[in-house]
């Protein structure tokens, strides 16, 4: 039983990270019907910014004195960086293709994904880059189940961000504009919403969440790599589809589900650990085949002019 | 200076500044210090090139280059017209002669590159049937390449089955893989189809990587036999057959040339057959095709299978040539490369795909000193091409809009 | 003072359509299905680009103005098929109508007005737009447009798919808006009967061309119009 609970804790932690990244995919797809292949690289970008900033702060001694302040600082700057990166990608590679075929913009996204990945590789090196993780060690025991501080931290940050996102999307003016634009782009223009600005903001918000996820993952596993975005990106997209593409609550639930399934399958299915990446793909294919609108239903612009 | 002129320069300057802000943290925060030198030099070079391009673009818009471009355009149209009217064999014969004579006049390195080009031509044409002709966005095509390669590898190493006997077997297995991978995607929308095929490609790679018992995992399979032929040999008064293993690069070149030419002819015939018509109908508007009596299920499966066959054959050759296979060769990046050959060359167009293969294989070889930047340039070029010239380098004659397009 | 004058040639949908609307008027465009009426409104709003000619609003050309900047200038469209936001509540839909406004008191006042005009919207204000009936959706669409405090309202086939009683109710409200608040109305309608009773002037559109232009009263008497559009 304890083993099971332990795996559940692990699964929820991983699931939280997937949920953060999945939100970026689902919001972008909801508003412009694009699978943003480059989103995984935004996640990686967050991881890189985290390690760069935290290493710098560590070398200045700040991480010994005020580790949490340093972490918060790095988090905010990384979010800002990734938001700028995502908005740049949108402006350069997606906006000009707004009226082109689906294939064109998909390939453009692929191209940007490869471009960013290699950009990281060329500027930061091919090898893993280590995070200063001294301040995150340790944990506590709940009976026979070990919970590390890092896991609590990830769950706390994830929950906090998810709540903030919900407030943003459902209570603020800009959130309502995002939802309106996702439901009917033309009508939202007719009521005075500048679709381009809303789309940029959507990209930026998704990027902030992915950046946080990147830093959390970097701290948890201790290192980042230039290609750390590829596989988690696809899994996060699977989570978004599982929850219902375009549906924010769905993406949150989907993320946690995929995380749980991955950890539990790796723990309980023979050879599960070797094939753990496969489970998310299988779920993706299964969902698209049996239940394409996902668990909570889709939220896309299904109007025809 | 008009208002629009100043505005676009202001936007350009803003874009360059934005680029520097994004670039600096990656290059400038190192070893506990803030540096500005490296990032500035990189930025300066990029900014110089970008400004030059921007100026050229603005001048081009103003029409400054028209005195040169217009006659050049007319010349190109005239040449194209001439070529169109010339009989086919006049254009193909010299090409064929060149291809046949190629190994006699070039060194090993060039032959190696040529073999690569030909392999990718096979792959590109195979994918072209799926993506270009039928409109199915397959991002996991390399899986079929892998299936073909591993099939020959296993048959050769475990059962010593000769290459030429294996070829049809590899084709069969690849076709089966095509049907298996294609089946779940039959009812999916374009984007979802893409990511599902990507998933399948990854699944195949992961299975190849992890199923140690069958595939040797990441260590791959060694000791694959190269192709061989039996040569008739007269000794004394009797006829016997001597086995010759075709290890030399020239022989391999001719084999792949044969495969490539076969693929070109096959794809050309498919293009202009009833099957090809059905494929194009599905690409243009699936619902309408269905209503016209085209069994979209069967034809889509057929498209996957046909495309897979060409990939599988190329895979078998790859295994025979390298004498070693490992999952490393069948990553998603390879799929993306083949896809870009098809798209950049011109979807659905045979000369376009050939041109794409040439560009994406031969060009990097020519610019070997920039090896590091190869993938970076590739990614950037892909995005750029979509924005600037989505039809490709040599677009197919027929190019309509897809039914699931926006606008 | 001229509110809108538009003349444009458009390759497929509209050919040299010219019309103008004076302040405070109710002008209607009638015509058969596919005559190009909706395209006209979409072109005025800039959603569909005009290939020739120009659209002027309040005396200036709005060719280089984005569609989403028009509501702030007082020009608002209620498009065909109502197009309320299905997964937003009534209240949120109304908020969207006033999205660009920066005067919370004025918005509050308008919201109260709108709820007074359409009491059923007040009752169901927390319900999602997609769950409303056709008539309620139409009322919501018009109410949402009113939230922008428009100077000019473009209405595209408000009676489509609605029962005669509800249509009457809606058209009464439209007249009320025009008379009491001075909102200029450009109405596109297939139901020529109801449109010509409401409007001051009318244009008749046929396959993308304006074939007739006159006061509504005279068009009602016109025998050709009576035969073609009024079912007589």
Describe the structure.
The complex is a heterotrimer of chains A (305), B (407) and C (232). Chain A is mainly alpha-helical. Helices cover 73% and strands 4% of the residues of chain A. Chain A has one domain: Orthogonal Bundle (ABC transporter involved in vitamin B12 uptake, BtuC). Chain A has helices spanning 2-32, 39-59, 62-65, 67-94, 102-124, 149-171, 173-183, 185-190, 195-221, 230-243, 248-268, 276-290; strands at residues 129-130, 139-142, 145-148, 223-224. In chain A, a hairpin with a 2-residue loop joins strand 2 and strand 3 (145-148). Chain A is globular. Chain C has one domain (2-228): Rossmann fold. Chain C is 37% helix and 23% strand. Chain C has helices at 37-44, 90-97, 104-117, 119-123, 134-146, 164-181, 192-198, 216-221, 223-228, and strands spanning 2-8, 17-22, 26-31, 54-57, 60-61, 75-78, 152-156, 184-189, 201-206, 209-215. The longest helix of chain C has 18 residues, at 164-181. The relative contact order of chain C is 0.19. The mean pLDDT of chain C is 84. The chains are: A mainly alpha (305), B mainly alpha (407), C alpha/beta (232). The A-C interface holds A 173, 176-177, 179-180, 183-184, 186-195, 299, 303, 305 and C 42, 45, 47, 66-72, 76-77, 79, 83-88, 92, 95-97, 99-100, 144, 148.
